[in-house]
Specification:
The complex is a heterodimer of chains A (425) and B (198).
Chain A: H1 2-17, H2 25-74, E1 77-78, E2 88-90, H3 92-95, H4 102-105, E3 119-121, E4 133-135, E5 146-148, E6 153-155, E7 162-164, H5 167-182, H6 184-198, E8 200-213, E9 216-232, E10 237-253, E11 273-300, E12 303-335, E13 340-356, E14 362-378, E15 382-393, E16 405-415, H7 417-424
Antiparallel strand pairs in A: 1-5, 2-4, 3-7, 5-6, 8-9, 8-16, 9-10, 10-11, 11-12, 12-13, 12-14, 14-15, 15-16
Chain B: H1 6-13, H2 16-24, H3 28-37, H4 39-50, H5 53-69, H6 80-99, H7 127-136, H8 139-150, H9 155-162, H10 166-187, H11 190-197
Helix pairs in contact in B: 2-3, 4-5, 4-6, 5-6, 8-10, 9-10
The chains are: A alpha+beta (425), B mainly alpha (198).
Chain lengths: 425, 198
Amino acid sequence: MKQFDDIFRENVNKAFSGYNADHLADQGWNSLEAAGKGERRRIKMIAFWTRAAVVTLLVGSSVLIGYLALNRQSSVEIVTLPETDAEKVIPDKELAGIESPASEVFPETSGPAGDGIEVKQKEALQAQFVAEITVVPEQPNKGIILLHSDTTLLPVVAENRFLLSEDSVNLVYEKALKEFMEGETVKEIAAEEEKRYGRTTFITGLSGLLAHVKDASSTAPGVSVGFYVDQKITERISLRPGLALAINSLGIDNGTGNEKLAYSLPLIDGNSGTPDSYSGHLNMIAMELPLNVVFRVFEKERSGVYLSAGASTMIYISQQFTGDFVNEYTMEQFNAATGSMTSEKRYSTVTVENSYGSFSRTDYLGLANFSAGYTFPYGKTATLLIEPFLQLPFSDLTALNLRVRYGGISMKIRFGTDAFRKGKQ
Amino acid sequence: MLRMGKGEKDEQLLSDLELIRRCSEGEVRARELLYRRYFSFAMSVAVRYTGDESEAMEIVNDSFMKVLEKTGEFDTTRPFRPWYGRILVNSAIDSYRKNTRHSPHLQISDIETTEEQDPEVYAELSAADILSLFRQLPEKYRVTFNLFEVEGYTHDEIAKQLDISASTSRSNLTRARKMLRELYIKNFNPVRRNNEAI
């Protein structure tokens, strides 16, 4: 038994040690290349869908934030003054069509406010406000109607669906309103509002950028889409972290001066190769995590000028390098006839195609950010920011270890109640 | 025979180490050179596990993709062939695991029982002869036989690789040997053939 097993094993080893499948090598290589192309296509598709998902997320977030910011202004309601002890609330539905003497509405009210408040409906169904009338019998001169939104207080006078018809009452109302607006209550509420919303605003933006490596620059302008949060620290200084997706193509040739790119090809016969020239390009998709400090140089209402500085971490989702390297070889030969050495130069071109994996490289705080921005009102609640910027490398960046500088201009939209309140002042 | 240009001759002279370095830098030509240089070797390993050249080629390509992914892990002080061989065997095992659900489950009882005596091997078997025998073995026996007899794995190692117990590995090997003897006698043993003819 053992004899057969041993002999069979030897036969296997012998037979397969000389196994020749070269006739299948072409077929194998072609199928491998096809599979590789499929894999690269798959990676490209993943990168594309990742990019699409991030852009969708950013745009979706921006739309949502914009909608919420705009919606705050219109969703208003009447608030009940907190200091009233006794009050009578007449719901909106009951008021529609009411044409009754003030005594019916305010039967126990005395003084100017109670003398004859007549609530008339003016284009009752046109208004969108959900209103309640609040009356303060003990303090008739503070019998006011207020509209309240999440962000501010709005006195209702002419814009509302209801008008106070009596001039005298209006006079009292205005007086009361003035007193009220100047009072502590408004300040407290405003402080509360600021505490709740005022210090954080949201920004979304689009940037056009160019990359430079020494004398080389982008083969095509890059683009970056980002989402940022502006957190006020003091009246003038705020912290602005964010998340941006940048797509860029960088042309690289001899001028870049990156020695690591020198694709030297030493031959086995001892001839040394030196790079003669090379050219290629690096296509990148990167996530940028900037953290900037913003200093407001000047600000008036929603217009202003600011300076910003900080650093960015770059996470590379995709990096693809393709390039041609021309290398020079020098062969030295001894000429016996003349007794001298002669040299012969030969050139070899190598095409390199390299795809670096997703998230294969992260440059932590690799870029220093500098920018200056100008802001101005955009719509009712938003602010437009125009911001030229410059990014300088702290360290070598990308899989090719390049010292890449970026420059460009950003257009951003800021949403938030900070801008909204300022606009109303 | 094709005449080889000077450049191609130079390429053929490139060492494995140089080719691997270039592969790691993304040079397509270097990848092709390395692939072709080790193609026959890779096929010789893979085909023992599959018994079929087209399936073996898939294993070879999978393993070469792994080589390209892992060039950074390659110990440049050691030769390439054994390292690649291990990757090939692992790829073959991966392929076996994938195919396990679909492989026909041939029992030992399916094979005609013959005499217990050891058959004599009269002549050297060619690769084609051996493959014809391997093709008749159930995949689990073929894989176990190759891992133990050719690659030199222990039963514990095989058990770990195939996610079976060591005793199952021993049992598989015993059955593989027994089946190979029987298949050899059935297919190649001239004495038996002569007797059957009479």
